[in-house]
Request: fold
Amino acid sequence: MPPAVLDDELAVLAADWSAFAGIDRMSNHWARPGWGPGRRSFYWMITFPGHRELAEEALSCQRELAAFGLDPVPADGLHITMNKIGVMGQVRREQLEELAQSVRGTLGGPLRLLAHPMAGSRGAVRFTVTPWTGLVSLHAALARAGERAGVPGGTETALFRPHLGILYHNCDRPAVDLIDAVAALRDRAPVEVVVDAVRLVELRREDRAYRWETLHEVALDGDGPR
Reply:
């Protein structure tokens, strides 16, 4: 369940942790269907090039959990997945161009976010991101633009759960030991990031990691961080 108040930091943290703590088994993230060899998909993503503090915190947490043999997200692979646009073959390049141009100047200002260690899902360990309101509004705006451009799209905004993954699970096993280890890291200070752009990317899997090519970068250039 999502938190009752999207900008209540404690409520978001509690909801994210409750969902993770209730998992009984971890699963293999890479076994998810639909990602065969050579697959390429188009997404809107928030990425963090050059954000040293976030990369260092992710690396520190990855080291603390190294005994579990999870697949770490590299510093240049840290991201928040926003909207799926469609799979290559379903979307024309002209639609991507139209989509990117249609949202320029319409997405509001930069987002001031906190990345909190930490929680997870059945297939990953991740930072909880707060607050949610700006991210949910951004998702909704991008979804509306996708509908106008006629692209297939993905998860509806009501089901969007912002998160920032740092480790992917690669097998099926009981979750309790990993949950206990992650719990021990939850008193670490959050990292502040200011997001000033969203990127339209061509996404692929490569050596148990996500890699992408940025096709369009759209600035969040409204009035001041939010």
In short: The chain has five helices and eleven strands. The first strand starts at residue 25 and ends at 26. Residues 133-149 form the longest helix (17 residues). The helical segments are 9-21, 52-64, 93-103, 133-149, 176-183.
